[in-house]
């Protein structure tokens, strides 16, 4: 079965910045499961998967614009320190901040007495990425999954 819109794909991936050591890999956990065609993964990776089948392995380079986007200036925000709990903060550190839009990865820029300046750019924004991918499984999505826009069960939402 080929990968196309409204199918569920389970895959392993390893991602690195072009020419560098891996940043992250699914190899030490379960494969990632995503619903194709619903904006669940970066466009460059989704496009590269199209028409592939279970067992396929491939590598793809994805430009920042098709990955996590270009870095944007002016995305700094001053946040009261209490929102970070008791974690000791260091400039350059990546932390997950609870926002009105859900958890968000941010980078600490400057730590003050009572406030912290953070950069809201995605940590991988502005980076050209290299992915090594192995397609583990391709299946039809259920009607409910398509309505919800995400995968249920193995590797997906449990609700
Ligand atoms: Zn759901």
Quickly list its features.
mainly beta; Chitinase A, domain 3; five-stranded antiparallel β-sheet; four-stranded antiparallel β-sheet; about 160 residues; 9 strands; binds zinc ion; about 40% strand; 2 domains; Thrombin, subunit H
Description of the structure:
There is one protein chain. The protein is mainly beta. The chain has two domains: 7-68 and 125-148, Chitinase A, domain 3, CATH 3.10.50; 76-119, Thrombin, subunit H, CATH 2.40.10. It is built from two helices and nine strands. The strands form two sheets. Strands 1, 2, 3, 4 and 9 form a five-stranded antiparallel sheet that branches. Strand 7 and strand 8 form a beta hairpin. The longest helix is centred in the first third of the chain and has 7 residues, at 43-49. The radius of gyration is 18 Å and the shape is globular. The two termini are 27 Å apart. The relative contact order is 0.28. The structure holds zinc ion (ZN). Zinc ion binds next to loops. Zinc ion (ZN) binds at residues 148, 150, 152, 157, 159. It catalyses: [protein]-peptidylproline (omega=180) = [protein]-peptidylproline (omega=0). Residues 6-80 form the PPIase FKBP-type domain. One of its GO terms (molecular function) is peptidyl-prolyl cis-trans isomerase activity.
Write the topology of this structure:
Elements: E1 7-17, E2 22-25, E3 32-35, H1 43-49, E4 57-62, E5 76-80, E6 94-99, E7 102-111, E8 115-119, E9 129-140, H2 143-148
Antiparallel strand pairs: 1-2, 1-3, 1-9, 4-9, 5-8, 6-7, 7-8
């Amino acid at each position: 079965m080929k990968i196309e819109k409204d199918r569920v794909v389970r895959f392993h991936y390893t991602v690195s910045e072009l020419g560098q050591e891996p940043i992250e890999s699914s190899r030490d956990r379960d494969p990632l499961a995503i619903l194709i065609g619903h904006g669940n993964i970066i466009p460059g990776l989704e496009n590269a998967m199209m028409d592939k089948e279970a067992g396929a392995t491939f590598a793809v380079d994805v430009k920042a614009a098709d990955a996590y986007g270009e870095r944007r200036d002016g995305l700094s925000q001053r946040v009261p320190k209490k929102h970070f709990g008791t974690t000791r903060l260091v400039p350059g550190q990546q932390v997950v901040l609870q926002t009105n839009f859900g958890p968000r990865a941010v980078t600490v820029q400057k730590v003050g007495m009572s406030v912290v300046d953070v950069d809201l750019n995605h940590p991988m924004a502005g980076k050209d990425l290299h992915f090594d991918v192995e397609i583990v499984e391709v299946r039809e999505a259920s009607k409910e999954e398509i309505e919800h826009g995400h995968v249920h069960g193995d590797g997906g939402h449990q609700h």
